Amino acid sequence: MLALDETALTTRWAWEQLTLDPRLAGILYNEVRLDGDGDEFRRTLVPVTRAELALAGGQLGREVLDMLDEGLWPYPSPLPESCTVCAFRVPCRAMREGRDPEPILRARYVTRADTPWREGRLGGQTWSMSRGARPNRFGR
């Protein structure tokens, strides 16, 4: 099952793109087991081939292009993890129940003016490149 972890594989691909270092040969999982079978801690190495990395990068690129498609029709997926804070919970539930969301959207939401799309760098950030922390505020 660990070999099917797409998130870890895509993260491994992105790490190589960010650091330009292809020496990583796999994904290391640290597992803490609570079932009491004697092996409470286990490390598992899942090797990754160059072909798997290339396919993961290609898949990510295709998904990005799908997200940028103006004709994209989102599927309703009301999950407890995301629904509590989602501003579109009501029309999403209407879609899931087979009702037309258009009256809800017209009554409750304002259409934004078209803003030009700006090309950027995938994964680019204003701070915290690989550090995981905010930049220091020296002199304050």
Please describe the structure with a list of short key phrases separated by commas or semicolons.
140 residues, alpha+beta, two-stranded antiparallel ribbon, 5 helices
Task: Tell me what you see in this structure.
It is a single chain. The chain has 140 residues and is α+β, with helices and mostly antiparallel strands. The chain has two domains: 1-72, no CATH class; 74-109, no CATH class. Helices cover 37% and strands 10% of the residues. The protein is built from five helices and two strands; from the N terminus they run H-E-E-H-H-H-H. It has helices at residues 6-19, 50-68, 80-83, 89-96, 102-108; strands at 26-32, 41-47. It has a two-stranded antiparallel ribbon with strand order 1-2. The protein is extended, with a radius of gyration of 21 Å. 3% of the residues are buried.
What are the SSEs and their pairings?
Blueprint: H1 6-19, E1 26-32, E2 41-47, H2 50-68, H3 80-83, H4 89-96, H5 102-108
Helix content: 25-40%
Number of strands: 2
> Count the helices. How many?
5
As residue ranges, the low-confidence spans are none
Work out the strand percent: 5-15%
Mean pLDDT: 79
The gross shape turns out to be extended
Adjacency order of strands in the biggest sheet: 1-2
The number of distinct structural domains comes to: 2
Radius of gyration: 21 Å
- Describe the largest sheet: 2 strands, antiparallel
SSE pattern: HEEHHHH
Concise overview:
This protein is an alpha+beta fold and 140 residues long. It has 5 helices and 2 strands; from the N terminus they run H-E-E-H-H-H-H.
